[in-house]
Amino acid sequence: MAGFKALKGQGHFPTLFMAFLYFDMSFMVWTMLGPLSTEIAEALAAHGEVISAGQKATLLSLPILSGAILRIVLGFGVDKMGAKLTALIAQAIVIASLLMAYMQGNSITYNQLLIVALGLGFAGASFAVALPQAGQWYPPKLQGVVLGIAGAGNIGVVLDFIFAPKIAEKWGWESVFGVGAVMAILVFIAYLFLAKNAPASVYKPRPKKVSDYLKLLRDKDTWWFNLFYAISFGGFVGFAGYMKVYLMNTYQADMSSFGVNVFHEPNVKVIAGYFGALTIFAGAVLRPVGGNIADKIGGVKALYFFYGAVAVLAATLALIDLPFFVAIVVLFFIMANLGMANGAVFQLVPQRFGKDIGIMTGIVGCAGGLGGTALIKTLGWSKGAFDGYSVGFMIFAAVVLVAIFGLSFVKTRWRTTWGAKAGGMI
């Protein structure tokens, strides 16, 4: 509460509010294909275009991949054109992509959907616009609360899973894109009139150069943080994007029975959305908790705990044929630990790269998106090659173990070099 009270009389609240609304709406749109994956696959099959598990994984991973790369591109846009114009251009592309899907409807082809998926990547890249625009208005001592408010968009993916399948049931899957387009247009108009770039008297821009990125990419710690965030955020967004496909392919009968008996809901795709939202919610809201734990015990120790839990739980999914509700509990805790690991990684990054945090946020954020893309493709490959997900979960668990080994490799050096004078727990 103290942090929120400190905002009074500071900065520009309309810009802060619009940065939050833009990011929240963008995150919702970015992950829209995930909760509609079954409905879209059925629509394609109805006109003879049956897609494989690999093709479905490609479709779901493409917005994550393009969003990862476009974070760097939009970061340069903020420097060259200002945050507001960059946001409006990106939002216009997102609106066009949503309208394309809506107008094509059930006649849409797989290749057209790939174009839509690429366009939705601009929504995922909003992270690189919303946070700087909000942060530029406020002094350093308020950056934590300001960026926390502006960046509270992860909840958008939860809303997707709750509402998208039900809207699709009533009016067709394409109507979800129509509703999304209307909401995006409203946000565009509000953003146009309410958001403002910080004046020179408040914020002096320091445009980033390609050489700035190259300099940091030559630092080995950059690559360690890329690995750690590719697992934590990549794991979160990858599982979120693929969650409904996994649940429908593995536990459809259980969800159908539960939906009819408990919710009196015969549409199993809606029930899959509810359970997907439940598991994803944990990761979406617990990121600040992970950061707080890392502040108290150190980021490295916190990541040991979070990654260790994820590795054990992922291996459990791979090796044991779990009953449905046990699997939901396991998925819930996987997402919870991945969300907290996100907070722990970004407890460490500012301590190591405090002077370059803007550039590092873009680099590490890009790595997170690439990690999510790899996870979705791995799960899709596992399903296609082995008619199951055990191999995919084992590969993910093995990569998490590599990260744990990496923490052991760097912790002493970190604690005795930059960590010794960083001012926070390492």
Could you please describe the fold and organization of this structure?
With 426 residues, this protein is mainly α. Helix content is 81%, strand content 0%. The chain contains 18 helices and no strands. The protein has helices spanning 2-6, 13-30, 37-46, 53-81, 83-104, 110-124, 127-135, 143-150, 155-171, 173-194, 210-217, 220-263, 268-285, 287-297, 299-319, 324-352, 357-386, 390-416. It is globular and about 55 Å long. The two termini are 27 Å apart. The model has no long low-confidence stretch (mean pLDDT 89).
- Secondary-structure-based class equals mainly alpha
Distance between the termini: 27 Å
> Mean pLDDT across all residues, rounded?
89
| Quaternary structure classification | single chain
* SSE ordering: HHHHHHHHHHHHHHHHHH
Total count of helical runs of at least 4 residues: 18
Let me know the number of strands.
Answer: 0
Major β-sheet annotation: none
The residue ranges in which pLDDT falls below 50 over 5 or more consecutive positions are none
Helical content, roughly? over 70%
Principal-axes geometry comes out as: globular
Percentage of residues in strands: under 5%
